Amino acid sequence: MVAILIAASAVSIALTLSIRGWWPYDDGMIGHTAERVLAGQTSHVDFDDPYSGLQAVLHAAVFRRFGVDLAHLRYLLVAGFCVWGVAAWAILRRRFQPISASIIAAFTGVGSLLTYPSPMPSWYATFTCTFALWMVIRWTEAQRYHHLFLAGVALGTGILFKTTAIYGLGALVVALGMQIPRGTSVAMAVTRRVLIFSPALPVVWLSLQNAPGRSAAYFALPVIMLLVLANRTTQERERVVTPPSPRVLLGSSMSTLLGISLPILFYIVFQSGVTGAAALFDGWFTGPASRLSLVTYDPPSFWVTVLVLINGVILLTIATRRPTKYTAAVLITVMASLFVVNHDSLNTGIFLGAGYAVSVLALWCLRTRSLSDLGVLAALMAGFVALVGIPFYAAAYVGYAGPVIGIAAALLAAEIGLARLATVASMLVGLATVSPVAFGVQSHGAMAPTEDFVQSSIPRVSLVTQESLSYYADVVAVVGQHRRGLPIWAGPDLPHIYFLTQSPSVTRHIYEFSDPDPYGGLFVQIVEHCVMVVVLNSGQTQVSPAPRSELLGLLRTHYDEFEIVAGHEIRWTNRVHLDC
User: Fold this and answer.
1) Is the pLDDT of residue 142 over 80?
2) pTM for the structure as a whole
3) How far does Cα 202 stand from its chain's mean position?
4) Which residue from 179, 271, 331, 564 has the fewest beta carbons nearer than 10 Å?
């Protein structure tokens, strides 16, 4: 009963606090892609969706059923967190009492959600990776193929939200290798090492694509440490566990691959058909790969990098000696309290250092007593999910990986007898996030102090800050006055303008970086589609290149009337083309 009350309270807090505020570039992009699907278009076939596409289909269904309002997508996200909570609770129950498991799941979930409550596909990738972790744990306990199949289904579904969910496959591959104990035949020993260490290659490659030194330090090294730990834990089962036969390994692998393939195949058949499969795969893999080189976000400042590395060395030094529970208590409490600091760069550094924390905690467990498969698998999934931070070194990614990192840290702490401390630390971290958002102490992600929120007069956005309302209300009014019900062009990186003004777009682009030559032939396309209004981004673009001066000259000549509104150069013409 108490566990149910804790869960209900967490849901109430999430519903109350998560629907306020918005981040225009993300929320607007989410709404715009959903509207394009609602109009009959298909992601990657008809427009360049920045993500895999399932989120646009799901959000379009919500709009169709409940109406076009970003608040409805926030409610859907909270519902997703409720489903995540069931999987998290089931995992935590293996080391915690029901009430403690409920507390950790509730505070970890709500605390993570409120760092950035926009309904981004990254959240759903985290949900599916957590469910996959639950199923893999069930498989290690019961050795039933259907658990691996369901884990594969979860990852396949996660990939349809965002391709980064494929990182979770690394934990599944390592789990297969961990079932082969030491002391087996040479062939099986080689198979074990290949399965356990093979995820290191893509992780290292990924970390070298953007800011290679820092990415490798923050992401690759912690994962490699965990892979080494996974290999070492197999020595405990040298004479206890019967090694699986090649037939069992093949069956396990095929169950996983079948589970991953089914949702992807269903999506291809029902969304694009066979003819659109090439466009889908191009959007799933070519687009994300281009972001690795085009992203404009910088890694944390040099001093944050040094701070995290120094702390990593200190933790490693402590972990190589026989620690005491008191030392562990101090370290975990200090790590939890750091989340209170209102500094995006420091918060990002803490998140990027979380891989070290989980890795060192796992090493700690191994030195003090036997490290169970449960702890290793949870730590591995946390390390792989944390890779979502490449190449967007932003504070919002604290939240995306937070749920899995929180589960892993709690389980590892319980392995060395610190279950109560893990429960208290989870509450501290959760309160450190929830309290500022609730009482207006500081700003987190898209959130702002409570007293600044007003009922929006802009359709499709329920509760926004007064500043945001005054910023965009005039933009919506001016565009609506001059576009005459025709499509507009807004860019670069202005998908929220299409969504707020309820205007169709004349191009495939959501963000222009997805096209090697996004502005080639754009002026002709604009004129042919009878565009009466263009909105130019007068500020700094998010990820896309700025338009060439020749194109800007043509636009400013053709659209000879203009008004600068809230940093947007809104231009229009009263000359109507004969074909329009």
Assistant:
1) yes
2) 0.86
3) 19
4) 564
